[in-house]
Amino acid sequence: MLAFIVSRLLQAIPVMLTVSLISFAMFAYVGDPVTIMLGQDYTEAQREALVRELGLDQPFFVQFVEFLQNVLRGDFGISYRLGRPVADLILERLPATLELALTAALLALLVGVPLGVYTGLYRDSWLSRVFLTVSLIGVSLPTFLIGILLILVFAVILGWLPSFGRGETVTIGWWSTGLLTASGLKALILPAVTLGLYQMTLIMRLVRSEMLEVLRTDYIKFARARGLPDRIVHFGHALKNTLVPVITITGLQLGAIIAFAIVTETVFQWPGMGLLFIQAVANADIPIMAAYLMLIALLFVVINLIVDLLYYAVDPRLRSGLVASSGR
Q: Would residue 44 count as lying in a domain?
């Protein structure tokens, strides 16, 4: 088990180095940080002093090594636009993004899996057809349009929910949360539904197709022939064997939710990392863009490792394969 984890971590090193190189290349080839930081009115002496201070007079790979050393210390530089450490800005916005992403993922799982099981077991019922028809909306409509429609209905017409912002938050240490206040919970509903709708329909359709395939297998027919109740056949045998592909999709989609929450955060002006990244792109704030790219890559690496470990826990064939390989 330990060797399995170590091998996955070693595989992640070249990925992170490649992402680090791409992130650092933005400093060298995108925009002019000196002009952005000094503005239009500066002397040549001021420019040369800032170039030396930023280390821009050093060769590319010398700058890259220094960049890696700073990143390993948690130092992503100073924001060109805000003049504050990027690490502090990320830590301020990280709770909002994680709160939104995890809520959306939890909503997608809690709704998508039961709907997938139901539409798989009762595929000819009228309610299953309604669910499948409605699911086409989540697959077909773009995220920003779903968000705008939800704002129009629930914020403008009905006036039930706020259309932007995070509501009132409570600070616990460095973590700020809106889950402990009524306005924070109300503000979370629309963006979480918007962000999780596509993932919910994807999970529902995946679980349905896997259930239909598993229910046709011989061991399910054998379980029915033994006289086992439908509850045990459906949930003890069939559903368990659909979990591996569901875990794959759910894990990758969680990373996608965090990475691509940009659109949802922009529509709802949710003060998370996605909105910070959009503002950084608009102002060519390279340190924030580079830090965001590296953080998202790290999240995908961690999520993939967790998915692999869940494979190990769910599928006994993988455990036996690891034991056999370690025995050799």
A: yes
Tell the residue number behind the tokens 């080839």, with chain if given.
29
Please report how the helices 86-121 and 243-259 are oriented relative to each other, as an axis angle in degrees rounded to 10. 150
Q: Are residues 146 and 27 in the same domain?
A: no
Assess if residue 176 is contained within a domain: no
Q: What phi and psi values does residue 20 have, to the nearest 5 degrees?
A: -65, -40
At residue 17, the pLDDT reads: 84
Query: The domain containing residue 299 runs over which residues?
Result: 98-150+189-327
- Longest C-alpha distance within the chain, in Å? 87
Entry field: residues in the chain? 328
- 189 in Cβ contact with 161 (< 8 Å): yes
* Strand residue runs (E) in the chain: 170-172, 175-177
| 182 occurs within a structural domain | no
The alpha-carbon radius of gyration of the chain (Å, integer) is: 24
Element holding 208 (H helix, E strand): helix 182-215
Please write the tens of the pLDDT for every residue from 137-146: 777 888 888 8
Burial of 204 (0-12, 13-18, 19+ CB in 10 A): buried
Sort residue 78 into left (φ over 0), alpha (ψ -120 to 50) or beta: beta
CATH number at residue 109: 1.10.3720.10
Please answer whether residues 285 and 79 qualify as being in contact, where contact means their C-beta atoms are separated by less than 8 angstroms.
Answer: yes
Q: Look at residue 32 in the predicted model and tell me its pLDDT.
A: 66
Q: CA 22 to CA 16: how far, in whole Å?
A: 10
Q: Assign 123 to helix, strand or coil.
A: coil
* 111/51 same-domain check: no
Tokens of 149: 């429609």
Residues 204, 313: one domain? Answer: yes
Q: How far is CA 171 from CA 3, 84, 179, in A?
A: 40, 21, 11
The answer, as to whether pTM is greater than 0.90, is: no
